[in-house]
Write a structure and sequence with these properties.
The complex is a heterodimer of chains A (230) and B (411). Chain A contains ten helices and five strands, in the order αβαβαβαβαβααααα. By secondary structure, chain A is an alpha/beta fold. A five-stranded parallel sheet of chain A has the order 2-1-3-4-5, with helices on both faces. Chain B is 66% helix and 9% strand. In chain B, strand 4 and strand 5 form a beta hairpin. Chain B is elongated. Chain B is of the alpha+beta class. Classes of the chains: A alpha/beta (230), B alpha+beta (411). Chains A and B meet through helix 2, helix 5, helix 7 and helix 9 of A and helix 6, helix 7, strand 2 and strand 4 of B.
């Protein structure tokens, strides 16, 4: 799944789908992306419609608003990433409510951007998301840091078969803190004397562990609830 | 809304009325059987038969009357009590020995049903009134009351008052519950509306900012202003601070005020030791030139410490404006470590070259930074100044958390 996404940007345009309930925004984002050379293959204004259409057109990147009628954006993200792990989701949210953003990131979104971001930032973010690179705002980095600390401070798992709480390595914590303090990947690479790619990998790992933990928790819950027989 | 109140109220009171209905029928049968098995002691059996026939008719006809509080009128209660009292007073006319020997009255325990109806309808005062009348009738009927008679009378009296009191308490808690449910539903609905409205407003503000910047000129200024407001509103919404404030604003209804009081007490500034969410104090700084990153859960510190820390952050931000310029970007990061709270303020100014930092400190030119350090030292914390050339300056403020025991009581 990675080769077509990363290599194709030169050969064929990145296929993007825009999901937003405000027609004004949907059109503006779609227009900006088209002007920047992206192929906007579909748009949707509500949750169920987004799931249906995304399954039909299989875009590379889903630009997703979280506040949707019919079905919350988080749910849309869960269903689509669940059935097609190759799909990249960039959350474009107006309010950035903490719980929603964390939930979206845990269920597979790899990018998060506020609607107040500039057009340039948006197109860069879509390009990075398509290439599989995480798009973090300082705000999201702060939330993810907080989430790891919350998980770590929860009482230790009672049974030995329970999944281990994910932990950040010291380096990952260091990188995430710098992201939260507003440094760009390039500045972080300079400061820590590591490569730009390594910085991205560290950031990606922080998300990956959360998503994995989330999936393991879901499976455990399903087994406990007896849903695995179904 | 009135509909919901009624539904909730019926859910607790209705079973009591149903029980009363069953009680009246069962005690009627009991009274008839009692009279049937002891028929040989009656000197005037026709009185017994006539009274019990009337009692059966009365009980069955008035069954709908004890179906709920609304149909149980005062008139019915009065007549019902009269029927019971007449039954008690008729007993010596049917059984001449009743005045000297302990034995059941004609209606026997059916009488209690009448008293219970008073208790259910009007609480302990009505129950006391009815049971007093029954007690008087019983004593009159017995002629020469025995110790058992007084014992039974007191028992009925205490029991009916207790049941009446319990009914009152149940009814009061039902009302409180109904009110609480109402408030909760209203608050939830308001929060839902607020989310939608805020989201729409944020969209429009972000759009104005976007288009304004693209158009340039006067529109760019408008866009910048929209951007400022967008950040302010988003910070408010995303920290989840809006619902609490909104409730206290819309506190026209008395109960809503009560619901908010507890929350206000917690964050009251007067109470120095009460835990206070540091995020809410720092969120106000967020703007187009200041980005605020925070954990998703409240960062609790004693109010006094939180206020000092927030003041130190303000000083650090002022410092950024002075040294890095009015256009410099700044970032605030709040971290809630197990043993300490760390707040970092970073700017993207030119930074301070390596040797210059010590030199400036020696020359006493780091006035603001030193005052920040002083504030933090008073709280038992530290302030560190980190500067990387080309990456701006960072002030890292660290406050240790109070010992576990103290934190436990604060929570």
């Amino acid at each position: 799944m990675s080769t077509p996404n990363t290599q194709a940007s030169e050969e064929r345009p990145i296929r993007v789908m825009v999901v937003d309930d405000h027609p004004m925004w949907r059109d503006a984002v779609a227009r900006d992306l088209t002007e920047s050379g992206f192929d906007v293959v579909a748009t949707a204004g509500d949750g169920p419609g987004a799931v249906r259409r995304a399954r039909a057109v299989t875009p590379d990147v889903l630009v997703l608003d979280l506040n949707l009628p019919g079905m919350p954006g988080v749910q849309v993200c869960k269903e689509l990433v669940g059935s097609n792990p190759g799909l990249r989701v960039l959350v474009l949210s107006a309010s950035g409510e903490h719980a929603d953003v964390l939930e979206a990131v845990k269920s597979g979104a790899t990018g998060y951007l506020l609607k107040s971001a500039s057009t340039q930032e948006l197109t860069d973010a879509v390009r990075a998301t398509a290439a599989g690179d995480p798009v973090f705002t300082p705000g999201l980095a702060g939330l993810v840091l907080g989430e790891y600390r919350r998980l770590a401070s929860d009482p230790a798992p009672a049974a030995p078969d329970q999944p281990k709480v994910p932990q950040l390595t010291d380096r990952e914590t260091e990188v995430l803190r710098l992201v939260a303090k507003g440094l760009s990947y390039k500045q972080i690479a300079e400061r820590l004397v590591i490569s730009h790619r390594t910085v991205q990998n560290h950031v990606q790992n922080t998300l990956g562990k959360l998503q994995l933990h989330n999936r393991v928790e879901l499976v455990r819950y399903a087994i406990e609830a007896g849903l695995d027989d179904v | 809304m009135a509909g919901r109140v009624r539904v909730v109220r019926m859910s607790v009171e209705q079973p009591l009325w149903r029980a009363l209905t069953a009680y009246r029928v069962l005690t009627l049968v009991y009274a008839a059987l009692l009279a049937g098995f002891g028929s040989e002691k009656f000197e005037r059996p026709w009185v017994v038969v006539a009274y019990l026939a009337f009692l059966a008719l009365w009980t069955l006809v008035t069954l709908p009357r004890v179906a709920n509080a609304a149909s149980c009128t005062k008139r019915f209660l009065g007549l019902d009590l009269v029927v019971a009292l007449v039954g008690i007073l008729l007993t010596p006319l049917a059984d001449f020995d009743a005045q000297h020997v302990d034995g059941p009255t004609l209606p026997s325990i059916w009488t209690a049903g009448s008293v219970l109806a008073f208790a259910l309808k009007g609480g302990w005062r009505w129950a006391a009134f009815a049971s007093t009348l029954v007690a008087v009738a019983n004593i009159v009927e017995r002629g020469e009351p025995s110790e058992d008679t007084f014992h039974n009378v007191v028992l009925v009296w205490v029991a009916s008052i207790a049941i009446g009191y319990v009914v009152e308490v149940a009814r009061a808690s039902e009302r409180t519950l109904a009110r609480a449910l109402e408030i909760e539903a209203a608050t939830r609905e308001r929060e839902r509306l607020a989310r939608d409205i805020h989201d729409s407003v944020l969209q429009v503000l972000a759009m104005v900012q976007r288009r304004g910047t693209a158009l340039g000129g006067e529109a760019a200024e408008l866009g910048r202003m929209a951007g400022e407001q967008e950040v302010a509103l988003r910070t408010l919404v995303s920290s989840g601070l809006v619902p609490a404030t909104r409730v206290s604003e819309d506190s026209a209804e008395g109960a809503v005020v009560r619901a908010v009081d507890t929350g206000d007490l917690e964050r009251a500034d007067e109470d120095e030791q009460a835990p206070c969410d540091l995020r809410s104090l720092l969120a106000v700084h967020a703007g187009s030139r200041v980005v605020f990153a925070e954990p998703g859960a409240p960062v609790l510190l004693p109010a006094a410490a939180a206020r000092e820390l927030a003041a130190a952050v303000s000083a650090a931000l002022d410092n950024v404006r002075v040294h890095a310029g009015a256009d410099a970007q700044a970032w605030i990061l709040v971290e809630d470590e197990p043993d300490a709270v760390i707040v970092t303020v970073r700017d993207d100014g030119p930074g301070i070259p390596e040797g210059r930092l010590d030199q400036a400190e020696e020359e006493g030119r780091l006035g603001v930074a030193l005052s920040i350090r002083g504030r933090l030292r008073d709280l038992g914390g530290t302030a560190e100044l980190i500067s990387v050339p080309g990456q701006g300056t960072e002030v890292e403020l660290k406050i240790p958390k109070v010992s576990r025991g103290k934190a436990g009581t604060a929570r």
